[in-house]
Amino acid sequence: MSGGSRPLVWALGGAVGGALLFALGRRTRRGVPRASVGSSAGAPTVERRPAVPGRPGRLSVLVHRLGLSVIVVWAALVASAGLVDSVSASTLPGRVQGGLLTLIGAYAAGSLVRAWRLASTDHRRRAAVGAGLALLLCVYLGYEVSTDFSGQTRVLAVAALTVVAALTAGVVTSVNLFVLARSGAGGRSGSLRDVWAGPGATVVAALVALPLSWYSVQYVPDTAVPTVSIASSLETGRAAKGGAVPVVARITLRNTATTSVRILGSMYQVTGTPATVTPGSDPASAPERLEAALRENYGPAARYNAFARYGQAELIQFGQVVTDAAVLIPDEETTATVVVFVPRDRLRGRRPFALLRLTVDLVFARTDRIPLGPPVEVDSTSATGRDAEGCDGLQVLQKRWPVVYGSLTERLTQSDREVTIGRVIGPPSAVPSTPRTIWWQDTPSLNFSIHHWDKPCGELLKDTRDESDLDLERRSMLDEAGSVTELVPA
Prior knowledge:
Structural class: alpha+beta
Distance between the termini: 54 Å
Radius of gyration: 33 Å
């Protein structure tokens, strides 16, 4: 289920609301007790019955039945979708939700069909019960649509139907409750107070007991934050005579969370940085170097040293740490050990690297928040349309996964989404969101985005995201991590 603990909130609210309205239905079947007034023994008994609402006019009946028809069709459709989910949803919360939709939708439709004649107080009560339950379904489905609303045709159609059904159910419920209250059909007090008093104790008990169980069983594990620790090291090896110097890089990823984590994308880079160290400080260049170290958030790779001046970092090697979309279960770890060959004269010659730097970047999310379909790989240099739009002058190797929904209700109320990562290759000046820096080369870089289906390639290069896309990332618990390891060549 998307949205984390939202399905269990719906289950709790549906159970409470269902219990309340179901109790009202039971009251409807039992009827209201009759009051008897008698004289002395042997005298005839006179029974006082609640007032029955006057017979409505033909036009009123036609309009009312039109409203009942709309709600019955809506409730039947919801019950049908719930029945499909209760059998075929891929998760337990999805099946529970499907069962609730089936139960409440079928009960609402049945109550409205039995109230079709509108000839008695009993019919009025059934109409109020059925329309009230349908209104509960509309509120829930409207909330589901609002959490991921977009202009996609399917979502717009569901939203429009939900609004029409909600307005109709609200009017039918209000009219019938008003008629019942005016006729005194709710009991001796002439209101519906007695009708609601019975299920009140049940509702209060549910509100006390169910949240405690839900908090420990569902909320705590469902809101566990995904975390991945990175341990990396660099070590120079012994080179053959006249050969390149091998540098061994080891990278270990460990899932330290209590939930499974999906590594959407990963990249390591090994760079070399020249440096000049002088016995005395250089006050003239201090402001420029201070600005270079503090202007952007580059982490521990950026620094200011009063006695050292650093040159432009040069890329030596880059690659993936793990395969894209790899899954790590809790406490699982994986290690990548790679060898990087560096020319001898770049370590000990006239233009040596003073520092070798290993940087690691990861993009990951909770596995259960974004179930993914088969990926599609796209190269922006050979693509057209949205796969190349906004990526002019760059080669962006994109991998796109469609987000797979686990239930029919989700497919109807949620927009089509995709997860995209891109490895950007090209001159730094062509990347609009990346300022020039001496600390490492700007490309290649690992970019990512979770967005609605119609976003172009340039979405990967943006500094900012649309609020709706940011909400998708928050609900997916999307996060990133990185590490920096440096080595002074021996």
